[in-house]
Amino acid sequence: MNGMTTVSPTSENTASSGFITLKRVALVLVVIGIFVTTYLSYLKVGQASAVCIEGAAFNCEVVLNSVYSELFDIPIAYLGLIMYLTLGALLLLEHRVGFLQEYGKIIMFGIALFAWVFSMYLVYLQFFVLQALCPWCLTHETVMTILFGVISVRLFRSLQEE
User: Fold this and answer.
1) Which one of 4, 91, 128, 154 counts the least CB within 10 Å of its CB?
2) What are phi and psi of 75, to 5 degrees?
3) What is the pTM of this model?
4) What does the radius of gyration of the chain's CA atoms come to, in whole angstroms?
């Protein structure tokens, strides 16, 4: 041998790098979600018309102005924006704050689970009650589904390490 030692990655290092990758994916999804919900919030505040695909089942105005677009007089878009900002903050702070180091992934899972279930309810409303689809809303719901999956995998992996 030439005196050099080779260090093989341990399962902890490999899992850590997986978390970093999943964390980056989650952060990218959060940024996309913030963009979409900011646009939807702008539409509510400015009472502007959405840039929307017209025709067939697509009708943003029906969805965005329906009784289902608010919860207790709070626009759903605002709630979505708050949710994405919260998840983004938790992702950025999870290794810096002691409490979040221990419970951050579980908290994010709880938030994402609730948001995903609520998003699926909104998809149901679009397809079966309103019979109108909003591409912006469907984009949020798709992002939320993928984000929930990523957050779930991160939690599952961290529980396997324990």
Assistant:
1) 4
2) -60, 135
3) 0.85
4) 20
